[in-house]
Amino acid sequence: MPQRKRLRSEERRAAIVEAVIPVFAKNGFHGTTTKDLAEAAGVSEALLYRHFPSKETLYEEIQIKSCALPELDPLFDQFKIIPPSTEKLVFMIHLLMHRIVIEQDLSLPRLMASSLLDDGQFATLFLENFKDQFLDLFLESMKAAKETGDLIDVPIDDSLRLWMCHHVAASLLFVRLPGKSAVDYGIPRDKLVIQAVRFCLRGMGFRDEAIDHHYDPETIGELVDEENA
User: What is the Cβ-side half-sphere exposure of residue 215, based on CA atoms within 13 angstroms?
Assistant: First the structure.
């Protein structure tokens, strides 16, 4: 019986976290009240406080959940065991672009945007975690791509190349935050991903022949879709 009660409590906590993300995304941390949170979660303020002693602890729980990238992306563990290479680097860029640009649930991106307009705490934590998870993998494969001659030296810091790719993807996502894209690109989002990946690969310093040889959007797309199935 005690075990069953604990599980029910965990499920309630998880349900509250999911329910309040859109509220924080819309109002920001400082503009959100515990009354707003309780109403969104369909519970009383007393029950809300029972699970989360303060608004801050609930916000921290959202941060922890949202930053659990290995859980959100089942392909992450595969990156850690694949040796550094040009192919791995290209795949990482495509996956990064695909995961962000194709995002269906806009609650987290809206929370990011709200954080950037507020104190930036959530956005900073999320992006720091992203860097901790991916930067070393990215740099290792960049080194391998340089050694094979696929990637030329350009006057851009290596770590900034990852951030530039991320920011291109984030910009393509943020124009969709109203619910309908503020920009009509004239092509489907899956095609937009391919165009953005090619743009980033060129900007990173990949040779044209290396892009043509290593970037096969159809094959990579099938691998991503297979993992999501």
Answer: 24
